[in-house]
Structures are given as C-alpha cells and as structure tokens.
Amino acid sequence: MNKTTRFTRECGAALLYAVIIAVVALLIVAAFGQRVIQRSQHVDRNLAFVDCYTGLEAGVLASAVDIERGGAGRIGPDGWSGEDDAAVPAWDDEGIDPQSSATLPEVEFMATAQSWQSDNIDNNGDGIVDNAEENTYYTITSLARNSGVNRQVEVTAKTNIVNIWDHALFGGPGRPDAVIAGDVHAHGSVFALGTDLPEGAMALGGLATTISNTYEGIATAFDDRVPALKKRTIGGESMATLEAALRVKNGLVQLYGDSSFGGETTSG
Q: What distance in Å separates the CA atoms of residue 202 and residue 17, rounded to the nearest whole number?
C-alpha cells in the first residue's frame, strides 16, 4: 500500500514536470513563431514600400513625357476636376482612373502637373510672379499605392514640349546608313528618330554638321522671318536662346571635322 502510494505520487510529480516543460516549450515555439510572422510581415511591408516608390517614379516620368508631348501632365485623373490646377486628387475622387504597369500591375499611380508660369507664385524667388524665367518648369505631384501603402511625392521638373514644328530638323527613317548627314547647319532643336536603322548605323553626323542655340550665322534673308529669341538669365546676364536640344532615339551620333553642337557661352 505504501509502495503504491509512493509510486503514484512520483508519477504525478513526473507528469506535472512534463506538463510544465511542454508548456514552456510551447511558449518558446509560439514566441519564435510570432517573431517569424512579424519578420515576414515586415519584409512584405518593405517590399510593398519599395514597389510603391517605383510607382511614384513611373508617375513622375509619365507626367513629364505627357508635358513634352503637349499634354497637361495629368496621369490618371483625366476626368477629375479639382478646385484648381494646383489641387491634388484623392484616390476616391470622381473621375480618377489610376494607372499601373505591366511589370507591377498591383501598384497603382497617378500624377498631376502645375506650370510655374501660370500658378501665380514667384517660384524662383526673383521678385517677379510668372515671368519668362519660370517657363518650362513644372511642379509634378505623383501618388502611388500598393497593398495598403500610400505614398506621395512632389518634384520640380524642367521639361520642354516636344513638337515636330518646334524643331529645326525632325528626321524619321532617313537613309539606310544615316538620318541626317553632310554639311547641315541647324539653328534650333534637332530630333532624329532613326526608324529602322540597323545596329551601329549613324543617325546624325557629318564633316560640317552644326547645331546652334542662337541665330548667329543665319542667312540674312531670314532675319525678318524668324521670331525674336527668348531671354534667359545665365550667370546673372540676360541672354537670347533658342532652347535647342538634340534628341536621338535610334542610331549613333558622330562628331568629326568641323562639326559642333552648341558652343561656349559668351558674355557681354
């Protein structure tokens, strides 16, 4: 009888110890499991955050491209009518059509743009509101969301409207070996698409190809036929400029001989 009681007590104590150990082990496993879940959620949240920034960049770039094509820089809120051009849309506003990319379809983005020359603000701090110095500058606001993550960024962008009529030369396919070549003197922007050019082919070049940002050297017969140049403050001095730009989509650009693109700024 005594032996049986002692054995029962010992078994009961062992069972209690086993239960305590099992409970402690379960608590440890649960703690580690909770930590793993939290880390996994943190990683997912961080990935959504990074992808959201990709959406912000896409909105800014898409808005800038739309401006260069002559648009208003609105990406997504095409049917949205805000209080003014400087207003920022909300995701649940009427007329909002968020955009996404093929590579990140889960990330939605939209953007708006406000021209510095029409916002009634002295953006560059020169004491004059909406003057010519603020032309081609825009405030682009981009918004993106992804898996509950919402981000917004505001950037200042300098861009020009890319229009074929605003170019001195606008070349498409061209010849099989070049788009623009030879003794060519352009005063203003040049855009060579280089459509269907083979790899390694020259899009622009020649022994005496020049692109100028002013009317200097232009034939006198055109003096009365060209508009007055815009003025820009460069180095504290007001200078005339065509705001010329060289754009090449496909093909190579070669400079040799007497060719030159632009020139040194001359004061006075």
A: 85
Distance CA 193, CA 183 (A): 19
Tell me the Ramachandran region of residue 122: left when phi exceeds 0, alpha when psi lies from -120 to 50, beta otherwise.
Answer: beta
Q: Return the C-alpha torsion angle 219, 221, 226, 228, nearest 10.
A: 80
CB count within 10 Å of CB 19 equals 10
Measured distance CA(99)–CA(111) in Å, rounded: 10
Using DSSP, state whether 202 is helix, strand or coil.
strand
pLDDT of 230-248, one tens digit each?
676 666 677 777 878 888 8
Pairing of strands 230-234, 252-253: unpaired
Q: Which two tokens stand for residue 104?
A: 């990140």
Q: pTM of the full predicted structure?
A: 0.54
Give the whole-angstrom CA distance, residue 146 versus residue 154.
18
Sign of CA dihedral 201, 252, 160, 165: negative
The tokens for 118 are 């029409």
200 contacts: CB under 8 Å, gap ≥ 6: 252
DSSP 228: P
